[in-house]
């Protein structure tokens, strides 16, 4: 009777050999925490479609930042949830030097100068129609006028101390325009994290609730600028352009349904490649774990490890603080 000489199970038998052959390790330093900012003081406003996520006033945000620093999470990505009263057709609040994001940035940098700050660059929190750009009479998002606005927004964020500007809008040519403007203004250290392969996904619904753009967007969609979910060659073309235009980091978004794209991007370019585990992925996992159908710690760490396996250098996730605590055995 002959048995297999090659037994992959041998290495899996004991914890020591499993540890030695493990190919990827998830660390708190792989994570970027995501937070929503609101006006006020002492305010934590729950996002109903994202149980466990609160919109935070700046003083509460400072506490979250302190926790990130303590846990070894290198950076915090900020999204504003401004009131309807500052929204307009032309989104001018986006580059107001004293807007909510910029006040948050200055407060965070004063208290935690070493925590990396990532500012979202897109117009959707500030437009009355909920689109990421400026629209023409037909509701089409106009490319160049939007890029001009994004440039002003990026300069204002850099002035307010943001370390990284992260255009999440998918306009053509915006990385090059932002890079030129930052250089010309002397902001030579401001990094650009480009949402390069951002899909027109249905997994963003809870985020749009959180920043207050879903009601304004109504039945609208973003199919004329975000990518078709069926494409991945196109993702490589988009990433290549952003690299040529001066991106320091490129991103694939959403995460879990797009691991194939992540792997292709990492293999093709070897760039710092980030992935965004988006609001709908968060909501999906939360719903199942709150029902007791899945084990939260186990599935969250599994998804985050899967991103690393697929080639991610860093992961934007609403679970960053929880995951870092679990990884540290807290
Ligand atoms: N500029 C919009 C933006 N920036 C980040 C997200 C989604 C993030 C998430 O779902 O967690 C979106 C939503 C959208 O494109 O409508
Ligand atoms: Mg592009």
Automatic annotation (TrEMBL):
Q: Which organism is it from?
A: Rhodanobacter hydrolyticus
Concerning NCBIfam families, the annotation shows:
PRK09283.1
Q: Which gene encodes it?
A: hemB
Catalytic reactions of this protein:
2 5-aminolevulinate = porphobilinogen + 2 H2O + H(+)
**MF (Gene Ontology):** porphobilinogen synthase activity
Return the EC number: 4.2.1.24
Alphabetically sorted, this entry's keywords are:
Heme biosynthesis, Lyase, Porphyrin biosynthesis
- What name goes with this protein? Delta-aminolevulinic acid dehydratase
What is any Pfam family matched here?
ALAD
Q: How does it assemble?
A: Homooctamer.
- Where does this protein act, in terms of pathway? Porphyrin-containing compound metabolism; protoporphyrin-IX biosynthesis; coproporphyrinogen-III from 5-aminolevulinate: step 1/4
Q: Tell me the protein family, please.
A: Belongs to the ALAD family.
């Amino acid at each position: 009777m002959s048995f297999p000489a090659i037994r992959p199970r041998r290495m899996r038998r004991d914890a020591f050999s499993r540890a030695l052959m493990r190919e990827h390790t998830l660390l708190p330093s792989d994570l970027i925490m995501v937070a929503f900012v609101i006006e006020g003081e002492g305010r934590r406003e729950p996002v109903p479609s994202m149980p466990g996520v609160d919109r935070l006033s700046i003083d509460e945000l400072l506490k979250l930042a302190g926790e990130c620093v303590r846990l070894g999470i290198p950076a915090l990505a900020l999204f504003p949830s401004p009131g309807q009263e500052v929204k307009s057709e032309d989104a001018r609040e986006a580059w107001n030097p004293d807007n909510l994001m910029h006040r948050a940035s200055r407060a965070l940098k004063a208290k935690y100068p070493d925590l990396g700050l990532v500012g979202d660059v897109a117009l959707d929190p500030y437009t009355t129609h909920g689109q990421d750009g400026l629209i023409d009479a037909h509701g089409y998002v106009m490319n160049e006028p939007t890029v001009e606005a994004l440039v002003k927004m990026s300069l204002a964020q850099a002035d307010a101390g943001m370390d990284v500007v992260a255009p999440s809008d998918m306009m053509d040519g915006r990385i090059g325009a932002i890079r030129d403007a930052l250089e010309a203004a002397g902001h030579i250290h401001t990094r650009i994290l480009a949402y390069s392969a951002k899909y027109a996904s249905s997994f963003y619904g809870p985020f749009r609730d959180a920043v207050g753009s879903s009601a304004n967007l109504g039945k609208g969609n973003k199919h004329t600028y975000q990518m078709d979910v069926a494409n991945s060659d196109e993702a490589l073309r988009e990433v290549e352009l952003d690299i040529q235009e001066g991106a320091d980091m490129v991103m694939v978004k959403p995460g879990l349904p797009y691991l194939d794209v992540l792997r292709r991007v990492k293999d093709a370019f070897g760039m710092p490649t980030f992935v965004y585990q988006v609001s709908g992925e968060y909501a999906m996992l939360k719903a199942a774990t709150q029902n007791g159908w899945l084990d939260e710690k186990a599935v969250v760490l599994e998804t985050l490890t899967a991103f690393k396996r697929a080639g991610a250098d860093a992961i934007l996730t609403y679970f960053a603080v929880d995951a870092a605590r679990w990884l540290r055995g807290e």
